[in-house]
């Protein structure tokens, strides 16, 4: 039995339309050709734009929380059985409404059904866990059960509705389990990384040439998230990232971060190996998300390398890393451009598909924050000089070095 | 039904040219794989890291390095970057101009950050303008504006607008907490300037695609200042009607221009303003829950109707 509430055909058509829209935006097809593609891919689903989706999601969550709160307040619900029954009732109601909106109203990534389905997960878990007795001697058993239950419920929502963030929640919740098994810290991380690696390998092995595009997109994103999860479990110095520059008190350096040396140095090798393998697989299988995740992880490896080795940080370290990134990007661009038709093995540095433009991008916001980054040298403000002390004074904010 | 099948059908029907078919088919199958945006992101993050590294180095080692070394290297970086842009850049155009290469936009951004750091250093070390030091910000902002328009660079325009915000006294570090009366008024004045500049240049036909950068800055500063005013004064000042008016205007603009990002802003800021009143005047827990239900139902109803009306924009 297929668990998905949408048919494969519907999902595929949604993907085709999205891809065609991006092509039209990039001038690769005309509006008439886009209309033709849209005409052939009528899926009967009701979608909305991303901003409305965010609003729907947010306000449905607020509405659900307020309704549950009102019910508990109005009926003065007390006692485990009443709490459990109420939570289960609201969980079932939310989930049922989500199903109804999809089945009857054909909602697809509309925000409302997403919020309802997602809110039902903690409510159902709360209901079930309230029924279960908490053993005095093993609180960890209880927490493990909650994590597993939450993971299972969220994974069901992913299977049923295809919400990727539900899968992420499920993975994150399941990833908490090893930390409640009273294992030594190194073993916790080994169990977690091994479990995530197993899921990742299974996902890669499950891919076949017949896999449909929408399913391939979805598994690609999940694989990127799993790769990041494995990396996060293994990098023992990630929590120190940037602290050498921003923490005035400094950090007492623990040579192996409190882990056995064999484990510490194994993870040191793995934080290089995991992004490298990810990059290799991503390039070979042309998986953009996996490639991008691997590149970000590689950057994190380089940024935490000195912490791993116990080397001293210098103020110019970020500049060296940045310069290395720029040089690598330029070299790669030139190498790709020098290939036949500015392409090498299908890879090109040319812009082919433009991203959607909402008027302002993350890069613009980052650029706007630069003054705060380079010019945070404030003078103490004085009563008669209210303008002074501006922390965002890039082009000349002053103070003392 | 899949994309390959549709493309094949369109090719056979003569709707798609063979050249188009080849490109689209290769794109769809990932046989043609562009890493353009990844490379741009790498250069951008690289420039940000270099700028951060330079600023950190100057701050930590200024005593050892000496003024001449610091200012010399910052000026060299700045002049080098600007020279590169003037030599490599195409002629000025009032329309959108494509960057000549991958590095171009970021070299200009790097030059601007070097300039900002150098000016900040000069002022803190030599206190050249004394009480008038704040006007360095205005000069810097003016330079960044000129460069942004000359080289059609949205990143530098954002930098110019945030530097101008600093001149208006807006503190990034304190954000909302520092939105006292003085900052609210300067944020509103800043927002008016941004809005006026953006609209004037748009009407003059100069770099019309920059309009939304201006509008984003103007909307955030205005609505944040008004929400802060409502939080402080509730019903007893002009902030509440002004917020209602501004949020409504932003929402109307969002609908008319079909830029629904502004609808998100209008509703979220409007909701924040409404919450400021609710927290103050609703004392019963039950009423608070009812308020939550009422606002969410109201917003969902409104958006649902808009969503139906503008379904094609999805």
Structure, described:
- The complex is a heterodimer of chains A (about 400) and B (about 325).
- By secondary structure, chain A is mainly alpha-helical.
- Chain A has three domains: about 45-175, no CATH class; about 185-315; about 370-400, no CATH class.
- Chain A is built from 15 helices and two strands.
- The longest helix of chain A is centred in the N-terminal third of the chain and has 25 residues, at about 50-75.
- Chain B is an all-alpha fold and about 325 residues long.
- Chain B folds into three domains: about 1-35, no CATH class; about 35-165, no CATH class; about 175-315, no CATH class.
- Chain B is built from twelve helices and one strand.
- The longest helix of chain B has 30 residues, at about 35-65.
- Chain B is flat.
- Chain B starts with a helix and ends in a 5-residue tail after the last helix.
- The model of chain B has no long low-confidence stretch (mean pLDDT about 90).
- The interface between A and B is large, with 110 and 125 residues.
For the terminal residues of chain A, how far apart are their CA atoms? 67 Å
Structural class of chain B: mainly alpha
Taken as a percent bin, the fraction of beta residues of chain B is under 5%
**Beta-strand percent range of chain A:** under 5%
Percent of residues in helices of chain B comes to over 70%
Overall number of strands of chain B: 1
Most residues in contact, chain pair and counts: A-B, 110 and 125 residues
Please state the CA-atom Rg of chain A, rounded to the nearest Å.
25 Å
Can you tell me the number of structural domains of chain B?
3
Low-confidence stretches of chain B: none
Largest sheet of chain B: none
Mean pLDDT of chain B: 89
What is the rounded Rg of chain B?
Answer: 25 Å
Silhouette of chain B? flat
């Amino acid at each position: 039995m297929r668990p998905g509430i949408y048919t494969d055909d519907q999902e595929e058509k949604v993907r085709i339309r999205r891809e065609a829209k991006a092509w039209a935006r990039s001038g690769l097809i005309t509006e008439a050709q886009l209309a033709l593609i849209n005409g052939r891919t009528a899926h009967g689903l009701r979608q909305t734009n991303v901003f409305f989706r965010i609003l729907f999601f947010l306000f449905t969550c607020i509405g659900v929380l307020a309704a549950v709160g009102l019910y508990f307040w109005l009926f003065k619900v007390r006692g485990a059985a009443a709490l459990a029954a109420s939570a289960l009732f609201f969980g079932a109601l939310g989930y049922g409404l989500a199903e109804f909106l999809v089945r009857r109203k054909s909602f697809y990534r509309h925000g409302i059904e997403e919020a309802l389905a997602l809110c039902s997960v903690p409510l159902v878990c709360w209901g079930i866990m309230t029924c279960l007795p908490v053993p005095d001697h093993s609180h960890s058993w209880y927490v493990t059960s909650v994590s597993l239950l939450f993971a299972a419920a969220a994974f069901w929502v992913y299977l049923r509705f295809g919400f990727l963030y539900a899968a992420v929640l499920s993975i994150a919740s399941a990833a908490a389990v090893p930390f409640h098994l009273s294992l030594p810290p190194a073993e916790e991380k080994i169990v977690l990384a091994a479990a995530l690696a197993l899921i990742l390998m299974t996902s890669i092995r499950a891919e076949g040439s017949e896999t449909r595009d929408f399913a391939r997109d979805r598994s690609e994103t999940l694989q990127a998230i799993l790769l990041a999860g494995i990396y996060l479990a293994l990098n023992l110095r990630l929590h120190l990232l940037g602290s050498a520059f921003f923490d005035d008190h400094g950090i007492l350096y623990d040579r192996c971060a409190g882990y056995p040396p064999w484990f510490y140095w194994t993870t040191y090798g793995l934080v290089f190996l995991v992004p490298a393998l990810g990059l290799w697989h991503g390039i070979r299988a042309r998986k953009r998300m996996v490639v991008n995740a691997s590149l970000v992880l590689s950057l994190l490896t380089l940024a935490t390398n000195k912490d791993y080795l116990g080397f001293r940080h210098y103020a110019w370290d970020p500049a060296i890393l940045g310069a290395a990134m720029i040089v690598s990007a330029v070299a790669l661009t030139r190498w790709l451009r020098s290939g036949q038709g500015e392409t090498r093995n299908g890879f090109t540095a040319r812009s082919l598909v433009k991203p959607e433009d909402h008027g302002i991008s993350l890069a613009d916001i980052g650029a706007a924050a630069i003054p705060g980054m380079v010019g945070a040298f404030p003078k103490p403000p004085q009563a008669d000089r209210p303008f002074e002390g501006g922390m965002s004074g890039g082009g000349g904010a002053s103070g003392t070095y | 039904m899949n994309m390959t099948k549709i493309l094949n059908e369109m090719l056979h029907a003569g709707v798609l040219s063979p050249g188009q078919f080849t490109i689209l088919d290769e794109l769809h199958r990932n046989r043609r794989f562009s890493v353009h945006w990844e490379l741009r992101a790498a250069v951008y993050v690289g420039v940000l890291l270099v700028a951060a590294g330079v600023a950190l180095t100057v701050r930590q080692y200024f005593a050892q390095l000496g003024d001449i070394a610091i200012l010399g290297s910052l000026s060299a970086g700045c002049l080098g970057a600007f020279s590169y842009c003037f030599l490599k850049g195409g002629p000025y155009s009032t329309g959108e101009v494509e960057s000549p290469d991958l590095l171009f936009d970021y070299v200009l951004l790097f030059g601007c950050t070097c300039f900002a750091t150098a000016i900040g250093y000069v002022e803190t070390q030599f206190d050249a303008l004394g009480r008038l030091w704040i006007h360095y910000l205005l000069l810097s902002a003016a330079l960044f504006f000129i460069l942004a328009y000359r080289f059609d660079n949205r990143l530098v325009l954002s930098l110019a607008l945030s530097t101008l915000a600093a001149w208006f006294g807006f503190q990034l570090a304190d954000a909302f907490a520092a939105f006292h009366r003085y900052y609210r008024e300067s944020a509103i004045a800043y927002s008016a300037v941004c809005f006026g500049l953006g609209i004037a240049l748009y009407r003059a036909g100069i770099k019309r695609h920059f309009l939304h950068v201006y509008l984003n800055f103007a909307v955030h500063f205005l609505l944040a200042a008004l929400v802060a005013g409502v939080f402080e004064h509730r019903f007893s000042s002009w902030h509440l009607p002004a917020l209602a008016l501004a949020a409504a205007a932003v929402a109307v603009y969002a609908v008319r221009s079909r830029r629904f990002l502004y609808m998100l802003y209008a509703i979220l800021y409007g909701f924040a303003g409404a919450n400021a009143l609710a927290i103050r005047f609703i004392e019963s827990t039950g009423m608070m829950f009812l308020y939550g239900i009422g606002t969410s139902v109201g917003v969902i109803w409104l958006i649902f109707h808009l969503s139906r009306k503008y379904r094609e924009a999805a």
